[in-house]
Structure formats: structure tokens, C-alpha cells
């Protein structure tokens, strides 16, 4: 069983986090700590320069609110919002915070994953801790 579990989530309508939360609960020690992490992909500078600052700030605020609501479904979980490339950011966060298990959902791989790789694939291959992938 694990004591410091990171549950990586995507905050879009196509992803249901309940299976990841249930897996995290089943893998946890009685006194385990949970972190629910969402990675906000960076907007290219040439695009960001055309978006008003208040729109960027409001978008981040909405993401944080959605993340807090989502994390509340996993009792005692700490919500964390970070920026970066999802696969790398998840692995870096896990390494920096002594995470001993990462739980994340994955889609079924297609031809595009052969060339560019998926977030789950990157995490599985680069994490220094256990990784549980939910399909």
C-alpha cells in the first residue's frame, strides 16, 4: 500500500476521474495523503501575446475552481495546478514531492501515439515510483 499518492486528472468533459479516485483509495494506506494534480499546458508566446491578461487570469481561476471541486470528491486530497507539458510535469511533481504512487487515466493508444507518445506513456517510462494506469 502507498502513503503519498498523486492522482493526475484532466479537467475536460471527456474524462471521468471517479475510476482514478477509486483506484487511489484502494491502493492507499489508512493514513495516506492524496494530491490531485492538473497540468495546464502552456500557450505559445505568439498566441498568448494576443490574449488579454484578464482572459488568461480568468481561465486559470476557472481551472483552479474546477480542480478544487474535483479534488473534493477524494476525501482529504490537496488540489494542485501546475503549468507545463503534462507528462514531464507529472513526473517532476512526483519526484519533487516524494510521491510513491501515481494514478492516472489513459485513452486507448492510436497511431498518433507511436510518433508523439501519450502522457501516460511518458509517465510510465520516466517515473521513479509506481504508476497505475486506468483505462
UniProtKB/TrEMBL annotation:
InterPro entries: Rossmann-like_a/b/a_fold, Universal_stress_UspA, UspA. Gene3D superfamilies: HUPs. It holds the Pfam family Usp. Residues 1-135 form the UspA domain. Belongs to the universal stress protein A family. This is UspA domain-containing protein. It comes from Ruegeria denitrificans.
